[in-house]
# Entry
Amino acid sequence: MSLTKKILIAIGIILVAIQFIRPARSNNNQASVTDISKVAVFPDSIRVIIQNACYDCHSNNTVYPWYSKIQPVGWLLAGHIKDGRDNLNFSEFGEYSPKKQLSKLDAIATVISEDIMPLPSYKMMHKSARLSTGEKTLLINWAQHATDSLSVK
# Structure
């Protein structure tokens, strides 16, 4: 057997073996008492946009695509989701200090206006995450208004 065949067989075995090493998933499909919708002004129009463009990475209600079951893609997605939740978790927004809540709302407006979020790789795979100019304006205005309503409390 040639060296090339041995290498290909080894790679095949490794690819099959890693399918059994799966990252943990969390998806409770419910708004917790600390969800942003319970803490800040959160109209339905904003909820729809944020759920479509943000919740998969920035909440505990991730909808995992079929390809997340294929490794190493699943590991990459798990890393993105962990990073997203570490930066902002809408499901745990109420647990943030008032100062951090204000900071996160300001950051939302900034990353949307600068087209940093949603990530280009996410938009490529999720058509509903491609925000129109109108949706961006709605989100930015909402984040600023929600900031005003939080600072009043």
Q: What stands out?
A: The first helix runs from residue 3 to 17. Residues 25-152 form one domain. The radius of gyration is 19 Å.
